Amino acid sequence: MGSNENFINKHFSAIITGIISVAAVFISYFEYHHSVNRTKNEEDMRKHENKINNEFQSQGLSLRRTAREQAEKLNLLDFIMSKRDQIEKFNSDQKQGLIDYMLFAFDNEQVERMVILLSVEEGFFSTQQADETTKTVKKLNEQSLKELIKPISSNINSSEKIYRSYKDGYEYQYATDLYKLNAKNIEILNNKKDLIPLDLREESELLKTHYSAWNKEYLEKKRSYSQEPKPDERFQIIHSESTFPIVAAERFKSKNNEN
Fold first, then answer.
1. Which tens digits make up the pLDDT trace of 148-199?
2. How far apart, in whole angstroms, are the C-alpha atoms of residue 139 and residue 133?
């Protein structure tokens, strides 16, 4: 094994972003209570998560969330390398569990670069694990685009057109169309949350907050009517609780246009 200093000097620029993701595995694990294997049922996922957690702790690795403040002051590359000897004691299945968890919790491309680099240069992961990681990342990206990003972007485009018509006279028919599109996007973001890219997680929450607030006001206003409003009847939603997050919406559309 080469010296840590040579490794840092040679590869720092290529893997620093990946290192940040891997470091986060150790310092913020308990902030995430998600599965490491999307194909298993909930009980199996909990067992798998607990197994990985137990393996970490048996090797003396600190996973406490209180380590975040301390870790931010460290050189993250040094932090990972300092744990190297302990993690190398993991068997193949345990290392694969670590990869699975990182792919779920962090940016896929960064994890992929990290796994490939540490496989080729240091033998940290096996070549097979690196190849499988690449295949998994490609599959996840395709699935995310098809099942999340494209439908969300399409609904955003549709709602923008409808909202322009709605503002002309605040007619009930357009308010109802907006309500339905909002509900669709809330459903997608909730049901496909495992597919939300790391760089769209904040945007997803902003959109959900707005959609939920707007739909809540729609229903409250609708209940104030003794009967169903007519399609062209004025039905203005003030949506004072949450303005539309324009930048978040544009980020989704931009992500869609990249592919």
1. 999 999 999 999 999 999 999 999 999 999 999 999 999 999 999 889 988 8
2. 10
Question: Which conformational region is residue 237 in: left (phi greater than 0), alpha (psi within -120 to 50 degrees), or beta?
Answer: beta
Cβ(143)–Cβ(195) below 8 Å: yes
- Residue that is written with structure tokens 């992929």 in the block: 112
Q: How far apart, in whole angstroms, are the C-alpha atoms of residue 229 and residue 90?
A: 64
Report the sign of the C-alpha dihedral through residues 188, 193, 195, 197, in that order.
positive
Tell me the C-alpha distance between 207 and 181, whole Å: 12
C-beta atoms surrounding 179 within 10 Å? 18
Give the C-alpha separation, 173 to 178, whole Å.
9
Contact 252, 156 (CB under 8 A): yes
> pTM of the predicted model, to two decimals?
0.64
Cβ neighbours of residue 225 under 8 Å, at least 6 residues apart? Answer: none
